[in-house]
Design a protein that fits this description.
The chain contains 2 helices and 6 strands. By secondary structure, the protein is of the alpha+beta class. The strands form 3 sheets. The chain has a two-stranded antiparallel sheet with strand order 1-2. Strands 3-6 form a two-stranded antiparallel ribbon. A two-stranded antiparallel sheet has the order 4-5.
Length: 132
């Protein structure tokens, strides 16, 4: 994961073109080393937490992972000749849920319910009252 090239399609055209993107048939790609290191550290921490709780770390699977925006940081850095430049940060919150892979629960069969409008429900009630 740390040394793998990532295909970037959702970004704008400000990314430079790389010849190494030819493997995936794209012209724009990048190596997200910093993000991959953060995620690897988070997975390592989650594995240590699972080991502390007594779970089998060999059977862990990632059930859910989600990255949400955090409040942006806005600081300032002081430069020469009285200038001030912004020092911006764009942090994030990462949700990560690991479960043991052996414990898979099948979804219970659900009876299909028909969704009726209020007019259709009223008609059913009237018919039931007439028949009774």
């Amino acid at each position: 994961m740390l040394g793998k090239l990532l295909d970037i399609r959702s970004q704008d055209s400000t990314l430079m073109k790389l010849s190494t993107g030819k493997q995936w048939g794209v012209s724009r790609a990048r190596w997200p080393v910093k993000s991959a290191h953060f995620l690897a550290d988070l997975l390592k921490n989650a594995e240590a937490n699972a080991d502390t709780k007594g779970l089998d770390t060999g059977a862990l699977i990632v059930k859910h992972i989600q990255v949400n925006q955090a409040p942006k940081g806005r600081r300032r850095t002081y430069r020469a000749h009285g200038r001030i430049n912004p020092y911006m940060t764009n942090p994030c919150h990462i949700e990560l849920i690991l479960t043991e892979g052996e414990e898979v629960v099948q979804k219970a069969p659900v009876a299909k319910e028909t969704h009726l409008s209020s007019r259709q429900r009223g008609t059913q009630i009237r018919r039931a009252l007439i028949e009774a």
